[in-house]
């Protein structure tokens, strides 16, 4: 893992709303409307959080056609985030 990856994941996981989004998406993929409703937040706010999670590789999305409409469905990716002194040392010495 590179330093930029650690920083992106750390930033993405530093917000409790984003952690809750991961919790929800680990149970079942959802579209932005469903997430916004469940979180009681506006879609633009949820979208901003999803972009951070996608940028860190924690979430991915697919465009799905439902009738004549396209919906973006978000799902959580499997990941493991672990950091300690040894990991930090390797970031700068490798």
TrEMBL record:
It comes from the Archaea. GO terms for molecular function: DNA-binding transcription factor activity. It holds the Pfam family HTH_5. InterPro entries: ArsR-like_HTH, HTH_ArsR_DNA-bd_dom, WH-like_DNA-bd_sf, WH_DNA-bd_sf. Residues 8-93 form the HTH arsR-type domain. CDD domains: HTH_ARSR (cd00090). This is Transcriptional regulator, TrmB. It comes from Methanocaldococcus fervens (strain DSM 4213 / JCM 15782 / AG86) (Methanococcus fervens).
């Amino acid at each position: 893992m590179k330093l930029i990856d650690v920083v992106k994941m750390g930033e993405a996981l530093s917000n409790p709303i984003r952690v809750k989004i991961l919790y929800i998406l680990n149970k079942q993929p959802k579209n932005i409307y469903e997430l916004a409703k469940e979180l009681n937040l506006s879609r633009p706010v949820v979208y901003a959080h999803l972009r951070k999670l996608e940028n860190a590789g924690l979430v991915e999305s697919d465009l799905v056609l439902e009738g004549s409409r396209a919906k973006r469905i978000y799902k959580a990716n499997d990941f493991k985030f672990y950091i300690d002194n040894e990991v930090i040392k390797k970031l700068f010495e490798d």
